[in-house]
């Protein structure tokens, strides 16, 4: 066998093996690598643009491939997005609220407001009796002639009053009750006219149910100076002599709290407070920013999901 024949036989054997390989390949379904195409399709279109916008303007990430590890769909970014939205919205709302507040009341229309509130219905209630005030002269006390005469008339008047009505009734305003025991409330209102924003200041007051516990005597002593001697240099030495006692009786009333109500202490129109408007803008902006930040975080979670 010559060399050319050996080469021919090897060529036939290789050709036969190639045919066998082709036949085996024909028996299996064709496998096509589409990873590159999928990657290209992901990098184009609406979602690619939205993803790029989120990375550039919100998350601050890079657009290079392999960066998605920085923006994995975890709750960390969602929290950061919500916090950032709340802060940005709050600051923006605060600034807008303060800057847009009109403080010149002359440019505002004249308006009328009706301020309404409720007050308890009160009625005098009998609580008991206390002794009548009277003057009690001191018997056999040395008095000037003028006080002696006045003491006589005071004693006569006291005797007449004590005999006729020695007690004095005590009354105090008490809340009127409904059939179910609750305090009866009455509607009250006040009409206010002016320009600007209505400012009302309120005061909270208790509703007290009066009870008289006891009474006290607050005496006042009636005195005069009596000369009892002289000093070596001739100056008089005096002492206070009690001529009588004026008795003043006072009831001690305890008010048991059974409720409370609010009444306006002032109600008038005036310029709006820009700081109050700024505070309202802060609250509204923070809520809106929280919603937007949360929405952005959810969109990012969907885009970054593998």
Specify Rg, calculated over alpha carbons. Answer: 50 Å
Quantity of strands, as a count: 9
Q: Mind describing the biggest β-sheet?
A: 3 strands, antiparallel
Shape type: elongated
The percent range for strand residues is 35-45%
Domain count, please report it.
2
Class from secondary-structure proportions: alpha+beta
Number of helices: 6
Spell out the helices and strands N to C. Answer: HHHHEEEHEEEEEEH
Amount of helix: 25-40%
Measure the end-to-end span: 65 Å
Low-confidence stretches: 1-12, 14-43, 62-74
Strand order of the largest sheet: 3-8-7
Topology summary:
Layout: H1 3-27, H2 35-42, H3 46-59, H4 75-99, E1 110-120, E2 122-131, E3 134-137, H5 145-164, E4 167-175, E5 185-195, E6 197-217, E7 220-230, E8 236-247, E9 249-270, H6 274-303
Antiparallel strand pairs: 1-5, 2-4, 3-8, 6-9, 7-8
Helix pairs in contact: 4-6
């Amino acid at each position: 066998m010559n060399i050319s024949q050996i080469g021919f036989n090897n060529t036939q054997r290789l050709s036969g093996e190639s045919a066998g390989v082709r036949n085996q390949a024909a028996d299996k379904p064709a496998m096509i690598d589409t990873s590159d195409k999928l990657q290209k399709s992901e990098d184009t279109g609406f979602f690619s643009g939205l993803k790029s916008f989120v990375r550039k303007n919100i998350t601050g990430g890079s657009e290079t491939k392999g960066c998605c590890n920085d923006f994995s769909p975890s709750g960390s970014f969602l929290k950061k997005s919500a916090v950032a939205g709340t802060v940005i919205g709050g600051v923006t709302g605060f600034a807008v609220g303060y800057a847009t507040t009109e403080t010149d009341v002359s440019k505002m229309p004249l308006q009328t407001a009706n301020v309404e509130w409720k007050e308890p219905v009160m009625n005098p209630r009998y609580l008991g009796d206390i002794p009548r005030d009277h003057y009690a002269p001191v018997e056999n006390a040395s008095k000037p002639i003028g006080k002696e005469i006045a003491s006589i008339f005071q004693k006569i008047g006291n005797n007449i009053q004590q005999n006729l009505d020695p007690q004095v009734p005590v009354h105090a305003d008490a809340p009127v009750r409904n059939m179910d025991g609750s305090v009866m409330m009455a509607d009250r209102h006040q009409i206010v006219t002016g320009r600007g924003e209505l400012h009302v200041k309120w005061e909270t007051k208790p509703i007290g149910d009066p009870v008289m516990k006891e009474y006290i005597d607050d005496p006042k002593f009636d005195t005069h100076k009596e000369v009892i001697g002289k000093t070596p240099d001739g100056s008089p030495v005096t002492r206070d002599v009690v001529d009588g006692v004026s008795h003043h009786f006072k009831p001690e009333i305890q008010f048991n709290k059974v409720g409370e109500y609010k009444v306006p202490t002032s109600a008038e129109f005036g310029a709006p407070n820009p700081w109050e408007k700024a505070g309202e803008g802060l609250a509204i902006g923070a809520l809106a920013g929280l919603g937007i930040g949360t929405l952005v975080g959810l969109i990012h979670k969907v885009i970054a999901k593998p």
